[in-house]
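User: For a reading group we're discussing how well predicted structures match intuition. Take Transport system permease. Before you show the prediction, I'll give you the sequence so everyone sees exactly what went in.
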Amino acid sequence: MTTTTATAPLINKRAVIDWLGIAPFAIFALMFLIVPTLYLVTGAFLTPEGTFTFKNLADLFTPTILSAYWISIRVSVASSLGGALIGFFLAWAIVLGGVPNWIRSGLLTFSGVASNFAGVPLAFAFLSTLGRTGLVTVFLRDWFGFNLYGTGFNLLSFFGLTITYMYFQIPLMVLILTPALDGLKKEWREAAEILGASTWQYWRMVALPILWPSLLGTTLLLFANAFGAIATAYALTGSSLNIVPILLYAQIRGDVLHNPNLGYALALGMIVITGISNILYIWLRMRAERWQK
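Assistant: Thanks. Here is the predicted 3D structure of Transport system permease, as structure tokens, for the group to look at:
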């Protein structure tokens, strides 16, 4: 009498298929995110001759570079706060304002497109609209006798760059915050009304505390999004506005300011700042998801 025993397969086919599924993403992340980041971090501690040094990091505290970081932080804060404020009310109108479904779907579709519209096309669009000979500028001058640039407005400035950044910051806020507003349960509003709470009391004591992690986290994400942008700023202002991405580009690729290792140190500083913003965003998003379950 012979007995047969079932043996477990040496290779789990399901696990192999799962790993093959994520392999393209893992390879892409390794080639275009992890390896370049490690290269930048390593280069920040080396001289052009390849010897170890802390001079590149020490040079980050020179007045010119500190000024570039400060301008970048100011532009990022201003555009993220403006985008968060306007985007919140726009998302509120879409979700809770009672607008028709076709308006909601149209605004969300536009937000998906506009949040990715950046770089040279965005800079050209704003120059064609709000430049010195732009469509809106000429329209205000010829039809209403209002000289926009006579008021001190300049598109190629801190304020102009902030407005340009807000073009993609506002729709990004809408896309991220709309699901959070959708997650507000009707039972919470009904319970507040039964207990005699006004609309203002409901938002101040119930809705905003629940939405606060999402609001703050998305604002931090907008900050990181603006802080790392270079194509729009470079195409719009050139080198007239000394922000970190443009200074970094000048150090690595420029003909005059050519110090790649200092550029790597600048990039390391940007990685630290945006990394902190993204870590805080992820932590706040996890808190928001826990509240809304």
